[in-house]
Records
---
Amino acid sequence: MVSRRSIQPLGNSVPRKRTTSPIQKVLVKIRPTWISRVAQDMARGMEVRADFEEQLERFFDLLEQSVTSGDPAWMDSILLDWAKSSTETDLEDEPYHVSFLINRMIALTIQVSREALTKQEALDLLAAVVPIYAYGLEVVARYEMETRVAHISNEMEKVQQQMKRVDKSKSAFISVAAHELKTPITLIEGYASMMEDLMRAGKGVNLDSLLAGMTTGIGRLRSIVDDMIDVSMIDNALLKLNFQPMQISQMVAALRLESKDTLQSRKLTMEIKDFEGSKQWLYVDPARVMQALKNVITNAIKYTPDGGTITIDGKTKQGFIEVTVTDTGIGISHDNQAVIFEKFGQLGRVDLHSSGKTKFKGGGPGLGLPIARGILEAHGGSIWVESPGYDEKSCPGSTFHVLIPIRTESPDAQMTKLFSSLESRTEKKNG
Ligand code: ADP
């Protein structure tokens, strides 16, 4: 019950006085038994008990002092020391620690008096000490209650601050979302009104390019809305993974094919290394892992000036495959490395928000990396970044590390069957 940390070091102990009155004699008589009984009852472990016994000596001194002087306030210093150390350390778990201790002391005093004293001595002793214990209970209860109230209001303040932050992030989200959604809507409106004008003019015009523009705008709208839905699914742990066997090399190759035009127009080189584990069949949700890798690769494209290089490499690492995406881009400051995986980590930079997905430094709603992290964590993996810092002139670059667990079995038995046939087919092909 009594732990080492809940006991303060021996303080200014009261010098023992020569006992003269009968009640003091009684106190002296029960002292050793009382101390060892209370110590045995309350403190587990020899080391703690020795420490506690010292405390009990001090308590008993003060009890004697209070009885002799008739002033229970002598007990204040030790009671407050105990209450303070107990509430400071045990606020969460053991409530009313010292009150419990005093209650046990009362019970043990009665027990020891019965065993060691005559009836009259016992009655006299109890008449003298019970009011002091009662006083002690009151002091401690008041102190413990006050400390708890202070602790609770402190906690409430923290919650309130958290709510304020959530509120702020909510309104920031609305402003960024509105900004992000506005651009494609304006684009679609523009195309629609041009189409309307041309159709009204009644000339046999070709609407293909206008329709293509509208489709681009709608696609952009959809991807922003999809990102928002994904973030809310991740936040509410609703992301469902559809495990299927897949090789990382396949996913990366598909992503390179998707970015081919952008890479060409921005004169970027994408190097894909044939690393250990890249051809291993893994159970992942391929669509989701592709989405995570795509977000990282799109960023590498976005934050690397024209003519730069993006390298995709990796290695196996104790049950995981670690994929690295290294770019020769503007890099990320140490402060930002800590926040970019948080939702709207880049909200401060509303100036960066534009709808150019792959344009150099074309910002987005700041959801790409939080989504990537949510997907990878749902798989049991993780993601982090390393960068010497942010510098648009020297372009120190960044390396994103994506850790994917090597899962060779699916919860679904049929999938495992499919996996083994795929594996044997690949082995035949390779061997
Ligand atoms: P956004 O939609 O803003 O791109 P992300 O979550 O994908 O949102 O990225 C958050 C921020 O992290 C970006 O705005 C950018 O400042 C920074 N960032 C991400 N990847 C890179 C990178 N490869 N190089 C430099 N900065 C990056």
Note: The beta strands are 244-246, 269-272, 282-284, 309-317, 320-327, 382-386, 398-405.
---
Amino acid sequence: MSGSSTSHTDVTARAEELLAAMTPAEKAGQLTQYFFFSLPEGEAVDPALGLDIQEQPREVDAALGRGEVGSLLFMTDPARINQLQRRAIEGNRHGIPLLFGFDVIHGLRTILPVPIALAASWDPATIERGQAVAAREARSVGIRWTFAPMVDIARDPRWGRMIEGAGEDPYLGAAVAAAQVRGFQGDALGAAEHIMAGPKHFAGYGYAIGGRDYDEVNLADAELFNVVLPPFEAAIRAGAGNVMTAYMDLNGIPATASHWLFTDVLRTTWGFDGFVVSDANAVRNLTTHGFAPDLPAAGARALAAGTDMEMVITDPAFAHLPEALESGLAGSADLDAAVLRVLEAKIRLGLFDDPYVDEDRAHEVLADPQHREVARVAAERSAVLLKNEDDLLPLDAAALDSIAVIGPLAASKRDTLGPWVFDFDLDETVTVLDGIRGAAGDGVRVEYAQGVPVVQRTFPSMFDMFGGNRPEDPEGFDPDAAFAEAVRTATDADVAVVVVGEWQNMIGEAASRSSLDLPGRQLELLEAVVATGTPTVVLVMNGRPLDLRWAAEHAPAILDVWYPGTRGGEAVANLLFGTTSPGGKLPFSWPRTVGQVPMIYAHTRSHEPENQQRRYWDEASTPLFPFGHGLSYGRFEYGAATVEPASVPLDGTVTVAVEVTNTGDRTADEVVQLYLHQRHGTASRPVRELKGFQRVTVEAGASTRVEFEVGPDERRYWNAAVRDHVLDASAFDVFVGGDSIAPQVGSFEVTA
Ligand code: BGC
């Protein structure tokens, strides 16, 4: 019997029966999720983590023996997972299986482009397909649950975790969130070859003050409801079985203990019936926050708020729930409700019927060549062509004798994959250099020069302990000689491809940055290469916007390839040589300089809007590249749009239609975007907001008609004056085009 075919009442009855036979300690155990580390041989744990790697597995093993563990995370080896599962099932008198979770963020063995890149595809079908591959691989090794998607809106690129989300916009964010949940989970919780999704971090984590990861968030309700919550709601509507809390204080209350978030919003308003897990150590850390005096109180308050499971490295607060029950700190109804939710998830996922995995089959699934194809296509569809002066791209390999490939990131397998991957295979990873070598053909000489040294973080990353994550220069690397060599290589070539960006350990969790400059001497190198007069293509590897002002002015072509994953280099080569056309669009406004952040396109008009382009006296207050920007190898022209009818009642729907023609000579994709502006009403509304998009493929010389429906859902917003969602009668302006500076194409009235 699979989880998905089990009826709601069967599931509840089975869970209730188990619950009735459990002691308080067993119940608390079901609500505890331990990390279980197995570091690669020879790797040491950063002493700053204060973690005894010998002692920690012993603590977990003892808890398993007492039947007091509900879930484990961080294992990917199917044999080890089976072994631990057996230990758990045999160790508890109810035979309750463990639920194995893992951060399957952008692939397990086959690494997809990083999440911000997937969002840049503006293509829910590609995203869904990619995460379905990730789910299939994870499920094959025994992982049943991913701590993904991260759906936190990010508007401050100093915050490194921007790379894990879908950028600045709630409408795009909601579409990307739902697509990821569908990809991970399939049709229903427990679907074959799928895993449970856990959107995170509820809520507001992306607004860390100063972009400093883990720091407090102070966020007005209007921003929460209109910007931060919609992607979560979309993920819940798509069926997500789990939600993860956030580390930081939200408006003075630790998010992990926010009754308002988990009970009022998530369960009561949205009807979420899955379970909530804390972020790592976040329940224990209610004491660190100065919110709870001790561990029993921390556990009791998190539970009362609606956090069902504690993710912890060692010494869980929830282990004190039995004593908190006795002293009256915690309520038994809360405890039972949480345990029921966890048991129901385990039943729905089919764990009771099928707790083990087939280790041989896992190896086959992980090696599936089709997964690599999905990753390659996703990388192609994610790239964003930021600039292409005089059609320098695509390169015509037949007309070239030589290509110079320059920059350390061009040849770094580990960096090609991006952060938040642990089970990758470097041997099969295709770098940009490998990809260009493979695609250029025999007649083209491809020369590589590193040019500049690898840059290290001032403060190391905790992720560097996971084997091979810290970049290094080759032995005997001489920076000055390497720089000169790179310039010589560029001078001698017909075209130079310079790869610039951040090393992958500079972006992600605990990777906030006070600057958006290209680290190290990369800009200097780029300037020197462009100065040779050799036509230069800039490839950017990044998970956040970097300061590209110089490149945008002086380099003829810029292609943002993000961290493109296992088959990234091949995808990049296909784009460079025109086997396929770029068609991605920016999921954030690209600031000129760090001093402009946070920068958003959906700001209100506020006071003196005519001066909004020059709010700073020293730099334009416009983006370097607008939200939604991205070129292709086609040329898109928009016909006159129709907006009909001209007037509708509050619950009415307007249809906007436009014909898009590719007047270029290559088949290409365009992401047609619709933006809406409410002219007046019971609140000031943004100058424009994305309310529809469609990625279409149009052959050279062909046209396609694109239609959007603009109904009440597109016009409703949360209003701080009435503290509720409202629909205003007003006039609305409609903008349609290929980015967020698209022209106005019409307007309509909404009458009361
Ligand atoms: C992160 C989560 C992640 C968890 C488990 C935490 O540090 O904030 O996003 O899922 O670790 O790895």
Note: DSSP finds 21 helices and 27 strands in the chain.
